[in-house]
């Protein structure tokens, strides 16, 4: 925040911080409660709408300042929560259900915005402003590239499911949890960047450590529950 910011911009930043703090605190509660239970649904909805508030305020801030990196990151970080929320209404994809038009639009916009984020990391790293490193004599924004690739994977994953519906009955359970945890990694990233950058500047690891820790954790968690559900369905378990 700068001293010459108008009142509305200051107020918007406070709103952004409020929603960010709400999401940061609500997610662990939702994850800790019984999945599918009333408390889980309640805290999950609070978290989802908090992430919506974070993304909406971030978009306005990014265009007002302007900070293009923030604009593109806010799209894919919210899409992780959005796709996780929407998949609960698309459980019947294996039975022929069809996504709504806005599901297609959200996935396409996320893919395009993330592709731009990745490309800008290569051709305009200084404009992105974070995680700029030298690779083989060329400067790139490693943070923009990594986030862009993650965002493209999210958008492509949804589009692939829409075009070729999964056959696994509990696919939605895994997609919901991976999306929500992924969006929380984004919230953790924002928290880390705002606070740790005061001491370490715009170092790439300040932005990427939640992803480095979180992505393998999601993979391990998914593998664990796939084995657990498979054991329940096996004849030996019966």
Structure description:
This protein has 238 residues and is mainly α. It is built from eight helices and two strands. The protein has helices at 7-32, 38-64, 68-86, 101-123, 125-128, 142-163, 171-200, 204-233; strands spanning 132-135, 138-141. Strands 1-2 form a two-stranded antiparallel ribbon. The longest helix has 30 residues, at 171-200. The protein is globular and about 60 Å long.
Secondary-structure element series = HHHHHEEHHH
Helix share bin: over 70%
Structural class category: mainly alpha
Overall geometry: globular
Low-pLDDT windows of residues: none
Our count of helices gives: 8
Q: Give the N-to-C terminal Cα separation.
A: 61 Å
Strand composition percent: under 5%
Largest sheet, order of strands side by side? 1-2
Number of strands: 2
How large, in whole angstroms, is the Cα Rg?
Answer: 19 Å
Overall mean pLDDT: 87
- What number of structural domains do the residues give? 1
């Amino acid at each position: 925040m700068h001293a010459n910011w108008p009142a509305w911009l200051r107020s918007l930043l406070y709103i952004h911080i409020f929603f960010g703090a709400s999401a940061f605190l609500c997610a662990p509660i939702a994850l800790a409660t019984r999945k599918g239970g009333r408390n889980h649904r309640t805290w999950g909805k609070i978290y989802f709408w908090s992430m919506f508030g974070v993304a909406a305020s971030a978009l306005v801030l990014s265009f007002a300042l302007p900070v293009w990196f923030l604009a593109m990151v806010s799209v894919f970080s919210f899409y992780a929560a959005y796709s996780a929320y929407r998949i609960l209404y698309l459980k019947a994809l294996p039975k022929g259900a069809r996504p709504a038009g806005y599901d297609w639009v959200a996935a396409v916009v996320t893919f395009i915005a993330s592709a731009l984020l990745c490309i800008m990391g290569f051709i305009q790293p200084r404009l992105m402003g974070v995680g700029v490193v030298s690779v083989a004599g060329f400067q790139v924004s490693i943070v923009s590239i990594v986030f862009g690739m993650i965002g493209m994977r999210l958008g492509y994953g949804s589009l692939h499911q829409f075009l070729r519906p999964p056959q696994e009955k509990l696919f939605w359970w895994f997609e919901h949890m991976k999306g929500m945890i992924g969006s929380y990694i984004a919230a953790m990233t924002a928290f880390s960047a705002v606070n740790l950058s005061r001491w370490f500047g715009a170092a790439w690891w300040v932005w990427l450590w939640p992803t480095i820790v979180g992505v393998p954790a999601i993979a391990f968690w998914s593998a664990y529950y796939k084995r657990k559900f498979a054991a329940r369905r096996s004849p030996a378990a019966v």
